Amino acid sequence: MSFPLIGEAAAVAADARSVRELTGAKIGVITFPGSLDDRDAARAVRLAGGTAVALWHGDTELGDVDAVVIPGGFSYGDYLRAGAISRFAPLMSKIIDAANSDAKLPVLGICNGFQILTESHLLPGSMIKNDHLKFICRDQVLRVENNNTMWTSDYAAGQEITIPLKNQDGQYIADEKTLDALEAEGRVAFRYVGFNPNGSRRDIAGITNAAGNVVGLMPHPEHAVEAGYGPETVYSRETGVGGSDTDGLGFFTSVLNKLVGGAK
Amino acid sequence: MPRIVVDVMPKPEILDPQGKAIVGALPRLGFTGFSAVRQGKRFELTVDGEVTEAVLAQAREAAETLLSNPVIEDVVKVEVVEA
Q1: Is residue A242 assigned to a domain?
Q2: What are the strands of the beta sheet with A214-217, ordered from one edge?
Q3: Do B15 and A131 touch (CB under 8 A)?
Q4: Is domain B3-81 given the CATH code 3.30.160.20 in the classification?
Q5: Is A222 a catalytic residue?
């Protein structure tokens, strides 16, 4: 008797018909020199029921992907500024054009991916070194402030989720005018709850563009997609207070459901 | 060979966490005369040949697009240094 892998079990448990439809959606995951979480991001896409497509930063064509994840890591060793060199990769210019086009390619930037999105000016503001100057790694509670984006629609507005956070240059900053505009337009997508781990302005953990197709955040949803390997604790399991192991899966099911349910 | 020096500094309104850490370390070594430190970056671009106005213009553009992020940094100097 053979047991399915944990990831396969999740797919088997889901409704077979919807899984087949979701598998039609192709989510590209771009790898740069120094990317760390590209494989985890691809795995998260598969666990959510989609098809992960490996993209290389030096490619000049995007292919027929329906959405793109820019994963975490230390592309180009964070040299110059985090994300500054990756932003000029050949494939990034294609992604920037596609995100700004009428097709509104959905793009999710996680951690270093978020830094690349701000360097690309797809999202406003920037990240500087954590205010306490140390690398930090912890399970972090976030509040979903905007669930009207391509990447957050499977969450409830105001829902609190717990996903891992790990960064050195995670302090989100922008001028007051930009921050006020982000708040007024509902473009703060996620806020840190209980503890601000890096000094980010107004506890901002992630933001969206006006159209809701480009979302970036510092914490890592792709590390909380599988039972047994997430932030869940005995306490949170028994009481329902605190995170579950799969709090991050909603990012990937959101975009897949949007793509399948939409005009595509 | 001539070089073009580009100096980039964090914008005045941006808190500079590294500078803050350095100013905290100075008095521990007995350097008590300094109330603030801001840390920037210096780039040296070696020029193959003569520094023409076109080369200088390229250096200025590179400084604004790649070497600095205008959201958090200012280019404070682009200057030719003869070797």
Answers
A1: yes
A2: A51-56, A26-31, A67-70, A107-110, A214-217, A204-208, A188-192, A136-144, A160-167
A3: yes
A4: no
A5: yes
